Amino acid sequence: MTILLLSGIFTLAPPTGIQAYDTPDDRGGSITIEWQLSSNDVGIEGYEIYRSEDGVAYEMVGFIGQGRGRYQDETDDNREYYYKVAALRDTVRAFSSSSQPVMSRPQLFDLGATNLFIAMIIFCSITLYFIQTARRGKKFEIRKIAGLDAVDEAVGRATEMGKPLLYCMGVGLVDSIATIASFNILGAIAEKTGQYETPLIVPTSDPVVYTVAREIVKESYTSIGRPDLFDSDKVYFVTDSQFAYASAIDGIMLREKPAANFLVGYFQAESLILAETGAMTGAIQIAGTDNVSQLPFFVTACDYTLIGEELYAASAYISQQPLLLGAIKGEDWGKIVILSTLLVASLIGLLTKFPILNLFR
Amino acid sequence: MNITSDPWIWIGGLLTLCIFSFLYKDNPFYKFAEHLFVGVANGYFLTFTVHRVLGPNLFVPLFVQGRIWYVISLTVGMLYILRFVPRVSWLVRIPIAVTIGYYTGAVIPATIQADIIRQIQATILTPQNFQSWNAGSSGIIWSVILFVGVACTLSYFYFSREHKGVLGVTSKIGVIFIMVGFGAAFGYTVMARVSLLIGRFQFILGPWFGIIE
């Protein structure tokens, strides 16, 4: 009896059923190892994962705590590896048998993102359908958006006062949707300022954004037949440093005294600094961003604020171009699809045992 | 009071005061600090870009490792510079198109995943989501509030019709949800900003003047 008890304390059962396989739906560089837990799992520290390229000399590549039977190892693609797992208690190790050789490879398709693919097909199809419908001549209407109705007022006021307009795009790069939306609005506003010969100042915080903004303003002036109005000194790069950019814009607001400030794009902590300074100068301020944490500051310190998706709809609203209006119509149908999905999925979730949440992972 | 003799702390402290002087009005001290800040930031940006971006990602692979296909990136990037040559300045549109096209393509799937699919998953009314609130039986109530909030907020962003009738009611409820969200975000962010201000005062009173530890 004593011998049996002692052997229970000092022997350590190894993990069993070790399996190693190429991690599915990834871009390569990873092998997943799975095993059945040691029968002494409760009393051990954890599991050491060993790897070998020849099945003889193993080196430890990872450690995972007790109760867990899965590990992902980083590997070089197209090279064979063998794995062993050891249960560890104090200095005692119990090794599993070796796995079959396995190699990692990148997969062409990520089947785990099928739901994303379907969603993209649905939303892109809806948008393309309405753009095509607009191309065939159908006219779409958009409801009033208060902030955008004020654009004409802002340009008119600047013209009457003989002061410039300031268009600030924030600190977003071209990978930000808000920045891309801001480019569209900049084009429409540049056209309006060009019609009234009102100077437009566009200080930017990124060299690529600067280059795009410059081309847009130039193109807008050209499209209304006034390429001569383009002044390359009015569209310029300031700095990519967030607060240096904010301090420079503050300086511009106080020294150039624009009659209207457009703060449209992606903003972070500089939003309130800019909006407050603009409010101090008495300029009419129209702001818009999709960064939820900064919107409250614009709402409190600006005259008009474009909230989230209003920013995306703005360029269509200002320009009234049929193609852009078609895209907005498509977005609206997208929202109907989302609402319908929510309703149907909730009914399934409440009335059946189907694991509906798994479809949206 | 134990004022430091470290010149760098003196420079930092004086520049902080120069920036704070903006609270009174625009003045030469603020202008000096502003221009210095922008100049230093640009100097750093240029050096950083050459050494940390262009060097390891373009110059080393192309000229040291001989990866000849990197010449495509170099050529497309160099087109940006052609805007200084009036006759061929239109070529700058090629890298612009490549950049915007690439980023738009990269951002759309990520946005659909994070802003649509994940949010739908969190909003669906299921027993599993009720439990995720960790609020016992009231998890159902919170889930229903979330569901109503999402539906009404979505209706506010419906642009194809005027907000009248049923749509008017739901969009007004949506605005309430939006404003409650903004209020919470406002309070949270102001708290973070106040801690930044406290940090500057700690710098002035601590390392500079030695009044506090």
From TrEMBL, chain A:
It comes from the Bacteria. Gene3D superfamilies: Immunoglobulins (2.60.40.10). The chain crosses the membrane at residues 111-131, 336-356. The keyword Transferase does not apply. InterPro entries: DUF6754, Ig-like_fold. Residues 106-352 form the DUF6754 domain. Keywords: Membrane, Transmembrane, Transmembrane helix. This is DUF6754 domain-containing protein. The lineage of its organism: Bacteria, Bacteria division WOR-3.
From TrEMBL, chain B:
Keywords: Membrane, Transmembrane, Transmembrane helix. The chain crosses the membrane at residues 7-24, 67-85, 140-159, 166-188. This is Uncharacterized protein. It comes from candidate division WOR_3 bacterium SM23_42.
